[in-house]
Amino acid sequence: MQGYSVEERGRPNTAEYRLFFKNTDGKFISPFHDIPLHARAEQDSDVPAKKSKTNWDKNVFNMVVEVPRWTNAKMEIATKELLNPIKQDMKKGKLRYVSNIFPHKGYIWNYGALPQTWEDPKHIDHNTKCCGDNDPIDVCEIGSKVCARGDVIQVKVLGILALVDEGETDWKVIAINIDDPDAEKFNDIEDVKKAQTRLSTSNC
């Protein structure tokens, strides 16, 4: 967790549920604004940074895990609430869940966001010809470990996928936890395809 802790309020699978973040001093912080984007930035902060095999490559970022792999509840950072806790997304007054796609259950990767990022709803992307979705940039972490909701992990970016959701640009960063056994040999999405064709095929 890189020195961060979390505190739950309310019951999971309810509209009232919230997951708040704290720093090493036990003070509440925002996972959206207060956690550095670049993992290296933590070396000079009050958060103890773990030394990585990548020697603090510019390609290593912090990721806030919103949805652990194999779970169904669609969770997100509440960007419009004080302290930006994680909450369950709702649509038309109903809690949102992702469907199971056989043989998998729920999300097939650890899903989350890059802190201190934002997709500008006023900027038209030249690739998608659509504006941003007004949310942090999403991350799909394909490593072998099942993370916990609220984990802050360090990931290496392997690729990126542009989606258009209801007329808005919604980027999905494909990444791997730097502590994963395969992190050293994966440097881009082609490495993933070569080394683990089965994994790559099921995740596409």
Task: Give me a quick take on this structure.
The chain is mainly β and 204 residues long.
Describe the structure.
This protein is mainly β. The chain has a single domain, classed as Inorganic Pyrophosphatase (Alpha-Beta Complex), CATH 3.90.80.10. Helix content is 7%, strand content 31%. The protein contains 2 helices and 13 strands; from the N terminus they run βββββββββββββαα. It has helices spanning 189-195, 197-203, and strands at 5-9, 18-22, 28-29, 60-67, 75-77, 86-88, 90-91, 94-95, 110-113, 131-132, 138-141, 152-165, 168-177. The strands form 4 sheets. The chain has a 5-stranded mixed β-barrel. A 3-stranded antiparallel sheet has the order 1-2-3, with no helix packed on it. Strand 7 (90-91) and strand 8 form a beta hairpin. Helix 1 (189-195) packs across helix 2 (197-203). The chain starts with a strand and ends with a helix. Residues 44-55 have low confidence and may be disordered. This is inorganic diphosphatase. Belongs to the PPase family.
Low-confidence stretches: 44-55
**Form type:** globular
Strand content: 25-35%
Count of individual domains: 1
What class would the helix/strand composition place it in? mainly beta
Helix content: under 10%
Cα distance spanning the termini: 28 Å
CATH topology tier name: Inorganic Pyrophosphatase
Question: What's the CATH H-level homologous superfamily?
Answer: Inorganic pyrophosphatase
Query: What's the architecture, going by CATH?
Result: Alpha-Beta Complex
Biggest sheet descriptor: 5 strands, mixed, barrel
Secondary-structure element string: EEEEEEEEEEEEEHH
- CATH level-1 class: Alpha Beta
User: Oligomerization state of this entry?
Assistant: single chain
Number of helical segments? 2
